[in-house]
Amino acid sequence: MGYRIDGLQYANWSQKVFRQMRQGGLDAVHVTIAYHETFRETVLNIERWNRWFDEFPDLIMKGRLAGDVREARETGRTAIFFGFQNPSPIEDDIGLVEILHDLGARFMQLTYNNQSLLATGCYEDDDTGLTRMGRQVVAEMNRVGMVVDMSHSAERSTLEAIEHSTRPIAITHANPAFWQPALRNKSDAVLRALANSGGMLGFSLYPHHLKHKSACTLQSFCEMIARTAGIMGPERLGIGSDLCQDQPDSVVEWMRVGRWTRQIDYGEGSASAPGFPPMPDWYRDNRDIGNIQTGLRDAGFSDKEVAGIMGDNWLRFFEESFIPGDPP
Amino acid sequence: MGYRIDGLQYANWSQKVFRQMRQGGLDAVHVTIAYHETFRETVLNIERWNRWFDEFPDLIMKGRLAGDVREARETGRTAIFFGFQNPSPIEDDIGLVEILHDLGARFMQLTYNNQSLLATGCYEDDDTGLTRMGRQVVAEMNRVGMVVDMSHSAERSTLEAIEHSTRPIAITHANPAFWQPALRNKSDAVLRALANSGGMLGFSLYPHHLKHKSACTLQSFCEMIARTAGIMGPERLGIGSDLCQDQPDSVVEWMRVGRWTRQIDYGEGSASAPGFPPMPDWYRDNRDIGNIQTGLRDAGFSDKEVAGIMGDNWLRFFEESFIPGDPP
Predict the structure, then answer these.
(1) What is the ipTM of this complex?
(2) Hey, which residues 25-44 in chain A have their CB within 8 Å of chain B?
(3) pLDDT tens-digit map of A38-50
(4) Is B54 an 8 Å CB contact of chain A?
(5) What spatial distance separates the first Cα and last Cα of chain B, rounded to whole Å?
(6) What pLDDT, in 10s, does the model give residues B239-271?
(7) pLDDT on residue B269
(8) In total, how many domains does chain A have?
(9) CATH number at residue B113
(10) Which residues share a beta bridge with B327?
(11) Pairing of strands B105-109, B78-84
């Protein structure tokens, strides 16, 4: 054990980034491959990943099952697991859940900030919970082995997803609202329900989710994790850095605006700071992941708890989550 | 050994047909899942198969590797391997070869009668061989482990595919032209080149490919196989029945016409007989496959040769063909 797993990244992928994953000793990374993409556009993104797997076989490998994390460790590579931050890749077709699972997708958010066909996003005024299709898709995701991710969803929708899902769900990248009251961060009620159902929280390093944003200290971040462990237990926690390394600001605009509006939506930014915020100086990219390990020790976690939060908890969750389940 | 494998069918799939596969003792069937479909339409067809696998787990299972044929035998089921009779599912995008292989596609014809982006079909006046994209796609199919199938291709294109492919190819469903001089049947030159490269020929039971069509006798069919064994060797031969059971005549029209013409094209039929021809009385459906085994024995084949033609040769070919190869 003692794996290092990042529960979410959306970098501008390149040989440089893959090398930095290796320098950071990351055994696995859940990468976002779709924000607003249609099915066909998502497949084009998978094709691009196929070329990277072919081009950099010494750095990365495709991850399908938890065992691939172990194979990656043994062969000195990083296993890449696919996920979507929006259900747009399945369009209006529940059959695409199994198709995309077959192509490697292992996580799907039911919403990305806005209302979707499945649930309500965290930026909407009213949260109507899981839709009719949403309940069907959660059951189908349970059946094929695709994790429900509610990182960008609203409170009621999140609680209903936890309740309705027969398998534990994840919030791959968010922090507790008690520490930084962002719309994207989660209430104590959500954290408790998530932990009680066996789900996982990945702590985000995206500055808008951090106390004092880019100026957040490692000590404050790790003390927040310790406090969250008091609510959820240390075994339900991991890292989901939300690293958007090397992305041009046009990408954060695509993430926020997609094709759903003709106006600019600044999301967690503002007109005066519309771009990606600078990362905290103790986590600039994948090479710095070890700093968090040090910070967790300093915050009083045991070696076993630190190992769990750095990756072993995600690995256990992967083991439970990616194989097909019993039919609903 | 002693497997029963059908190298091509396009039935109107149903529980009835799957039960008849079991009654015929078929361990594996290569099924056509696309004639003129786009990528998205092909995915819809895969989704329909996913529902059948889910609905009839006691009768059929998805085939991905040769070992699945053995698992099917051990569990009393038929392994279903996907193929396309046209390259339309990859559209103009070579990256879709790997995507569709990941979704289970194991055979793809480079053409269906007409000129395609890849090669020339057997109904065109002029045969220009493999196109620029055709050569690239053959190399990509070799890389990922998808079999090049030239059943509906013209002579020069077929010879060039055999030559250009670094892995053995297949003609899954056709007969020798020496026996029945149909445009779809193959010359001695093609049969020799196919055998010399380690490829496979599946004998068709579609009446337009048979001597005396629907009135063809089992004896004539098996004597033709014996004569072909003299050219190709018995280990390069299998069955590819081209069974189109329970299909309405609208389907043979779709096969011939697709969306490429506003006129009716009768293909191998005629204005007076535009529909599916009746099958010979000794092979009406999957339950009759054993008759061919008997006929082959009567034609003088040894037990081992009969077992090879009935399925063991296809199984050996599956073993060689479906796993990724060395990069070109």
Answers:
(1) 0.89
(2) 39-40, 43-44
(3) 999 999 999 999 9
(4) yes
(5) 33
(6) 999 999 999 988 888 999 899 998 888 888 888
(7) 85
(8) 1
(9) 3.20.20.140
(10) none
(11) parallel
